[in-house]
Amino acid sequence: MSGLPNVIDNTASTAKADWTLCVAPMIDVTDKHCRLFHRMLAPRARLYTEMITTGALQYGDVPRLLDYDSSEHPVALQLGGSEPAALAHSAKLGEQWGYDEINLNCGCPSERVQKGAFGACLMAEPNLVADCVKAMQDVVSVPVTVKHRLGLDYEQDYGFAQNFVGILYEAGVRVFVVHARNAVLKGLSPKENREIPPLRYDYARQLVKDFPDATFVLNGGLATTDESLAELPSFAGVMLGRAAWHTPAVLREISQHLWPDDHYMDGTSIVQRMYEYAQHLVAEGLSVRMATRAMLGWPHGLAGARQWRRTLSDASVMNKNEPEVLLAAWEALQARQNEPAA
Q1: % of residues, the chain, pLDDT over 90
Q2: Per-residue pLDDT at 5
Q3: Residue 72, Cβ neighbours under 10 Å: how many?
Q4: Residue ranges per structural domain of the chain
Q5: 104: number of CA atoms within 13 Å, CB side?
Q6: Is there a cis peptide before residue 74, judged by omega within 30 degrees of 0?
Q7: Right CATH number for 11-258 from 3.20.20.70, 3.40.50.300, 3.40.30.10, 3.40.630.10?
Q8: pTM
Q9: Is residue 108 flagged as an active site residue?
Q10: Distance (Å, rounded) from C-alpha 314 to C-alpha 297?
Q11: 22, 106, 108, 132: which one is catalytic?
Q12: 171-210: per-residue pLDDT in tens?
């Protein structure tokens, strides 16, 4: 893998398959640069790529799509597709590149995904999903997992989710990431689909009871440390999405509650490592923004957070493509923390 070698030592995170704390796959968000930053905040968190379609891997630039830094482990490749042979090919590529898990997207409701007849649409065809899963399992040794919703459109019958999970369980799936809302395929945007369909954690808990030897990870609506920790007694893990993007410090907070004895980098050390990474990107002709984009919400709630975001979003500053802007923004933020209270 290219990138900055040995950015961090996360030996603890690779000790075993663990879904206790996960960061959701998010299109245009969880690229390798974002995942690198998240790894520094949460050494054991399981990270997921953006959804990558089978078509992109068949016809696109595979190294560009699958490259990652070795410190990201454990890291899962999420695939989008509905053809068993194409998914098997993509899953095999993922294993060859060293991903720790292959995850099939059965939850994305976007129009683009619907046109490709995959994502949340697949929940209407559980037997096809089972065929897809079996095809992938036949060619890889890493876990093949599924991320799904509880239902489609406005159907509220628990039996729909139970049947979907049951068919996949019979196909050999043992890890399910449950976004505890329905996916409304017509009339709601992806953003609205993350907010408007009601959360039904009770249905997700019932799946845990009905399939006791499967691993269920809860996704959807989890924004704070307290909310996440409150659900862990009921589930094998929690998965944070937009909260990890908008307020990434929550990953550190949850991680420290779960694994208080682990080593955690302090803020200055993280900034220094990301600065070094930004230098590496610039040397390759890439943009500093790739390194700083995921860091915008990091100091959320602290004095100086607004100026931090403003500096790292200012086109006139960022267009200079100078990694030193990150050090300057951090120094200004720290100065605000040291100001005497009014």
Answers
A1: 85
A2: 45
A3: 24
A4: 11-258, 267-337
A5: 35
A6: yes
A7: 3.20.20.70
A8: 0.93
A9: yes
A10: 15
A11: 108
A12: 999 999 999 999 998 888 888 988 899 999 999 999 999 9
